[in-house]
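Ticket #419: bound-state structure for uridine-diphosphate-N-acetylglucosamine.
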Amino acid sequence: MQRLIIKGGKQLSGELTVQGAKNSALPILAGCVLAGSQVKLRGIPELSDVYAACRILASLGVKTAFVDGTVTADPTGISSIHVPEKLMRQMRSSIVFLGAVLGKTGACRLSFPGGCELGPRPIDMHLRALRQMGVKITEKYGELICECPHGIKGAVINLPFPSVGATENIMLCAALADGETVICNAAREPEIEDLAEFLRCCGARIIGGSSGTVRIKGVKELHGCEYTVMPDRICAATFMAAAAATGGEIVLKGARAQDLGAVTDVFRQAGCLVSDSADRIYLNAKKPLRAVRDIKTLPYPGFPTDAQAPVMAMLCKARGTSVITETIFSSRFRHVDELARMGADIKTEGRTAVVTGVRELYGTGVVAPDLRGGAALVCAALAAQGESTVTNICLIDRGYEKIEKTLALLGADIRRENC
Ligand code: UD1
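RESOLUTION: The complex was predicted; output attached.
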């Protein structure tokens, strides 16, 4: 077990290079199963979830090596259609292997990915879509047994909600299917287009990865490729929040402003100066922060649910009252009680949090409740007076590559130690 010790009050300043996107890397790693020869993926962040995905690949018989941000995956020796329960439980996104394994082999056995600290995460939309594509799914003792007696067939799928995971699973399953699949009301998150682009590099025929209607014409086989995953927009948003909370000034190299419109809007409303060029974002938060009236998490291009907690931490010291509504997950305010321990004034009612800015936050011991909630506590600790200890940081390590090193580069007083 490890913890972070943070002495707050230092303004963050400097440049950092944004890591590759976790939410792209995981479905793309699953997509390696579909390729007919070796895949080389660059820009893969060193995260516990990525190692978990590599272990799943290995359990399927895909040889993988992960060195210096590059994963090499050789899927030619696939020997299993079964993802062991232990591996399914290590990572919420493991469900995305379902579409990939089915697409490649026509069969798959895995367990439900399990509950989640954000509230229930059902997969009914995934399963309904796969059934429409000819997959027979039986559930036995918590395990899903999936077969395709007549092969996987293209279908027109109307998603009731633009689910990111369901869109990815359908795309992966459809790439080698017989005929065309059309996903209506598909998720439009930039990671969807990144997955589409990776699959295209492998020879898939996909159009509309960012349009809300994705068309996939099944092909007979896919080949390997070399691909670099997109930069992580949620890490970019988190480091912007950390810099803004401390009144700092940073440059995020590699960040793509076009993916972060709803986020940069909020920082501007809070009084930050934000500008961008082709491959970087500059943020200056030297002026006192102002509250932001109305932030609502929504599917892309709306404000991302993953940025909600770090931005809330930033607003704890903003002048006035901010109102944040979480519409994607039912239980995504678990960082609120921990922020309150640091002196934040936050009231929640259902899915709405009302944040009244306080003059100071105070360092104390806090526990990361989930990945982004944990990152929010780090942001608050950086802005707080005195020393904070953040524990349960294995959750933060699921999404941020050596977070203490990145923040120390910006001048933060932060260290990791065993506890
Ligand atoms: C979601 C986020 C994604 C984020 C990720 C990790 C959205 C739209 N999705 O993706 O941006 O990176 O969490 O935090 O912001 N749902 C069902 N049935 C299903 C699938 C989903 O009811 O079969 C519901 C979920 O309970 C949730 C909502 O749809 O309320 C969003 O789900 P989805 O986009 O699928 O979640 P993730 O893929 O995990």
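RESOLUTION NOTES: The chain has a mean pLDDT of 96.
TICKET STATUS: resolved
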